[in-house]
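so my prof wants the structure for this chain in the tokens format not the other one, which i didnt know existed until like an hour ago. anyway here's the sequence
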Amino acid sequence: MLTIANAHGPDGKPPVIDSKKMAYVSYFENFYGEQMIFAVKKGTTKALLYHGDCGWDPMEVKQAHKNGAWVLFRGGGVVGHLGHFGMNGPEQLFITACMHATEFIRNGRDRDHSTPPVLVSAIQAEVLKTFGVVEPEEQAPSP
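here's what i got, hopefully its the right format
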């Protein structure tokens, strides 16, 4: 359904991704033409990132610890944290958005539309409350 030209030249072989075998696929290209594909195969909990600057070799994306940075793995070894890997802000946001969008898949759960996933950190929630985007929670009366 979608064919995208490889902007990275002869370095590595771009992946051929069959969307029928995927639970989730997302594509990103930044201002400089650097391309990434984020995918989660059906029946797995692994998030894979294909990056043209890395020869299109798949890297697994995991969270270092709860509320921690995203870490890239290849062949069982750590490639690096997103911020230390040379990815710019938009690239990091793309991966973060994909990780949040696939949380239910990666945790082995079916999508439950009745309860949306919590996608904001405590700090983000405070900022949203401050600007009136989210109503502050009712506080218990003081004794």
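also thought this was worth mentioning. The chain is about 20% helix and 25% strand.
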